[in-house]
Automatic annotation (TrEMBL):
PANTHER family assigned: AMINE OXIDASE (PTHR10638:SF20), COPPER AMINE OXIDASE (PTHR10638)
UniProt feature, compositional bias: Polar residues: 69-97
Region entry Disordered, spans: 1-24, 68-117
Enzyme class: oxidoreductase
Protein name as annotated: Amine oxidase
PTM annotation, UniProt: Topaquinone (TPQ) is generated by copper-dependent autoxidation of a specific tyrosyl residue.
Family indicated by similarity: Belongs to the copper/topaquinone oxidase family.
Copper amine oxidase catalytic domain sequence ranges: 390-803
Enzyme Commission number(s): 1.4.3.-
InterPro entries the record matches: Cu_Am_Ox_Cu-bd (IPR049947), Cu_amine_oxidase (IPR000269), Cu_amine_oxidase_C (IPR015798), Cu_amine_oxidase_C_sf (IPR036460), Cu_amine_oxidase_N-reg (IPR016182)
UniProt keyword Transport, yes or no: no
Key words of the record: Copper, Membrane, Metal-binding, Oxidoreductase, TPQ, Transmembrane, Transmembrane helix
Compositionally biased region (Basic and acidic residues): 10-24
Amino acid sequence: MHHQNQGMDSRNHAYDVDGGEGKGKLRRSNLSCRELCWLQMFAVLMFGVGIAGGILIGIYAYHAGPESDGSTQCPTLPPQGSQCGNAHSTPSPNVNPKEQDNNEHASGTLGECPTTNPVTGTRYESTVFAPLTTAEMYKAAKFLKDNGVVSTLNAPTSLFENFILYQWLDVPTKTAALDFLDNGGPKPQRHAKVTVQRGQELDIMEYRVGPLDSNVMTINSLNKPGDVQFNSRPYDGLEVGIMTQMLEKDMTTLAPLIAESFDGAKYPEDLVFNLFNGPPSTSGVDRDTRWVITYNGFKGADVDLIHILPLSGRVHNPGSNVSQWYTYDFHYLNQGPYRTASDLMNAYNRNEIRKVKLEKGYKDTTYDRIFPKRDSGQPYRENADRHGPRVYYPSGPRYTIDGTHVKWMDWSFDISGGQIRGPALFDIKFRNERILYELAVNDISLNYAMDSHSQNNIIYADATYGILGGLTPTTIMKGVDCPEHGTVLQTSFWLADTQLAYNMSSICVFEADGQDALWRHAGSSFEAGMRNRYLVVRVPTVIGNYDYTFEFDFYLDGKIFNYAKASGYIQASFWDEHDPKWPDKSRDAFGYRISDYMTGPIHDHMFGYKVDFDIIDRNNTFQVVKWKAGPALEALQTQNASITKAPEYFIYNETRYIEWEKMAQEKGIRKTPEQQFWLVVNEREKNKWGVERGYQIAPLQTGSQALINHPLLKALSFTKYHCAVTKRKEEEPTLTSIYDVNRMDNPQAYLDKHIDGESILDEDIVNWVTVGFLHVPIAEDMPMTVRVETGFLLKPFNFFDRTATFDMPQYTDTKDGSLKESEPLFDQCSEPKTHYCRFC
Ligand SMILES: *[C@@H]1O[C@H](CO)[C@@H](O)[C@H](O)[C@H]1NC(C)=O
Ligand SMILES: *[C@@H]1O[C@H](CO)[C@@H](O)[C@H](O)[C@H]1NC(C)=O
Ligand SMILES: *[C@@H]1O[C@H](CO)[C@@H](O)[C@H](O)[C@H]1NC(C)=O
Ligand SMILES: *[C@@H]1O[C@H](CO)[C@@H](O)[C@H](O)[C@H]1NC(C)=O
Ligand SMILES: *[C@@H]1O[C@H](CO)[C@@H](O)[C@H](O)[C@H]1NC(C)=O
Ligand SMILES: [Cu+2]
């Protein structure tokens, strides 16, 4: 899309392709019209699911935060320190003995806050888990070309070509990685996992290419030829471009119907196709693409999935021989099927079908309806012309980032991930003890229901399109989803349409001020508390119409909050007001009317995560703590069956009690009305009180899969559970296969297949956590869905001997003055000036 092309932060030279690997230096401004058009077309088509064109690779940390040229001053300066007016604010000298120099700042001419670059190293390849760099991608690509595995390193122009779809880091085996991290073993060499679309052989191949840090590389096939049928591949821009061309003739045939029905609209001036409604295949053997036409409400700056028009059809598009493809199954206002566009046009002309005529002038209102800009007709709210609160670091950042290795307040971890599966964290430790080996986003599934030929039955598994990046390179918006003081990490991805690797600024790391108490207590003559501060790793992505933000928040007490947030705009459906089957004109069986010609189809967003705890060591056990109620005697007998009578001090017959269950075999479970705590414990590691050390997995507010017998429930079986526990295996790296959503009748690698009865007691286990929301679109989803969020909490559960925060400076004050503690002092200073501009 146009606007994404221009959208990269020019400072990162995001579209400057490194010329070092034999490619000419290609600057963004030199992208040919053809390339732009392809990108635009590509992008236009992918929504809902999101196309991810690239691979999130190499993270290059750069400090986009404070720069020290000049200072900004607040218009009104508060008195020294942040504790003015607080009787308990006297700092404890043993926390920070530094004397304050009040005089210097008393006049209000504050200097800029001291700042250091938290990035201590940019050797991103030096950590085992660092995503591929653009240079590594080019190295792998060239090697594949030199060995005849791919037929081109240029933008593919024919489906008969063999070209690279995706590239990402082939993470070393856990055994090799841990041998290096824990035992001083050899550093695992770096490999790329490369997906190749083969239009000659009619399949998809995955290869392991490397070592990339060596001059002698090899190529290993990760699947057998023919294993992944060509027709179960993800959509690509080439295919969509060809289908778009094929449909041009039909649009000419239907021009009178289109003009009369849709307020004088013409194709292509006013209309665009959506050719990305998944899945294109259910068997993997055949391929068939549903299209619908929409107004171009964004004027080419984005895909418009809001102004869906009631004209749709299919393209039969199997294989790579385009001359065998054809268009068919035309529908107008859900009336059809008509085999050809002419059949539909004839029926329309003979008045054999019901017609719709959009109000005159409507077409010209689409931009104002959809474009998310301030409503300039409305006055400001009172005081809205003043800037809101801001947060900055008065003493500089307290975290460091060495390549992809992050450290903050005794936490440490590595950031990884890729274009297809999204962000991943590895080797998460607190106080040098490993808690998790891997914490990774795996997939997002959406399934739509609507009374519409084009919008019904849509199923997306976003990893199939790519979760991070894609057609629309994912860039953080500084000041919106990343504070000015945040550090932006650069990642890179591979775009199949151009066969180029791109850098993108997609990860934001910062320390947040919760501005609330992590804990507090006040007694009659003392008060004490700790202000909540936490480290945030935030990764916004755009997948077509939806924007997802993944966030990992590390707390001082050992908690990790994982959030999946959604914003963006909905994929709508056409509201046929005169449809005789709906008596209520404000809704139908599948959703509400939410605008003039629009309903919002219900759908879900289910986020699947891989959570590989390694509590102290690899072997852990999953335990369910059941919150029960029943007769007191029954409660006692759960621990000692020979007890025959409850003691007299059980005043009430009924009591609450706990029952523990160790899960012995692989299993998928859901949140139940009976309340439970889900734990991962190490049976061999006890805290001071003899209790197994563990962590709790607690889903936040989440929806559940309602379908019972739908064909998607196998390929996307992860949506049936909130937590599934399996034995960890290298052969079961993720909870979906990116091809299975396009071969649902015959899926190959999916969560239910991982759950096959193996013992999980004191074994290396993985928890597959699924959380999500059910989306009933409402008027407030227009024009933007205001952020909704779900997620899960990982919480220490007898992991420590006591609350872990009491090594931190805190606030304590006693009435008699015997004990005063506070956070370290700081010199009042002004917020460092920051520069961040995406379009300049
Ligand atoms: C990506 O950024 C890195 C670090 O700034 C740079 O070395 C590399 O050449 C860039 N790659 C591309 C393709 O622009
Ligand atoms: C493509 O299909 C057409 C029509 O069936 C056939 O004539 C042609 O030989 C095919 N081309 C290739 C390269 O297989
Ligand atoms: C169960 O409780 C009884 C009565 O207090 C006691 O005698 C017995 O030792 C207990 N059994 C076990 C296994 O601890
Ligand atoms: C306590 O509840 C149990 C189970 O409902 C019942 O069998 C028993 O009679 C009750 N005992 C008393 C003292 O009410
Ligand atoms: C973990 O379990 C595996 C398989 O049962 C076993 O071979 C290994 O020794 C165990 N490791 C530890 C640390 O207990
Ligand atoms: Cu939604």
